[in-house]
Design goal:
Elements lengths: L2 H11 L6 H13 L4 H8 L5 H13 L3 E6 L2 E6 L8 E5 L5 E4 L3 H13 L12 E2 L2 H7 L1
Parallel strand pairs: 3-5
Antiparallel strand pairs: 1-2, 3-4
Helix pairs in contact: 2-3, 3-4
The structure holds zinc ion (ZN) (2 copies).
One zinc ion binds next to loops.
Length: 141
């Protein structure tokens, strides 16, 4: 099953069809990795109008197709865990890059046990990490 099939199925479940703008926005986020709405807009224009890009992203967020990666007061978008393996990110405050962190099972277990100890039924989680990436740390020294 391709990611487009999964997208189509997910949309259908909620009563939506796979329109051209929805396919193009999805393809862009899939190809670009974490990106902002303006970056998506740059890629899909002039085929998709700005207003429909916003509407598609809003729908995708509501249906859990894309998720936000917070970076301070801004955010980037990426495909949700439905389409990729669960992972965390760190945001470089120097070059604004999002670094994808390798999976580490003891962190996942610690988060689950933290929720359990607080009688909280966890459905999803994300961690917000910011600092200086490796490349930027080399430039600064
Ligand atoms: Zn950096
Ligand atoms: Zn996690």
């Amino acid at each position: 099953m391709t990611s487009l099939d999964m997208l189509q199925q997910k949309l259908k479940e909620s009563g939506f069809s796979l329109t051209a703008p929805r396919r193009q926005v999805f393809r862009t986020i899939e190809a670009e990795g974490p990106c902002t709405i303006s970056e998506i807009q740059e890629k899909v224009s002039p085929h998709v109008h700005r207003a429909s890009t916003y509407r598609v992203v809003q729908l995708f967020e509501r249906l859990g197709i894309v998720q936000r990666i917070p970076m301070g007061w801004k955010y980037k978008l990426e495909l949700s865990d439905m389409f990729t393996d669960h992972h965390h990110h760190a945001h470089c405050t120097s070059c604004d890059k999002i670094v994808k962190l390798e999976q580490q099972s003891d962190i996942e277990m610690a988060i689950e046990s933290l929720a359990r100890r607080n009688h909280f039924k966890l459905e999803s989680h994300s961690l917000e990490m910011s600092g200086i990436c490796y490349e930027c740390s080399l430039k600064k020294s």
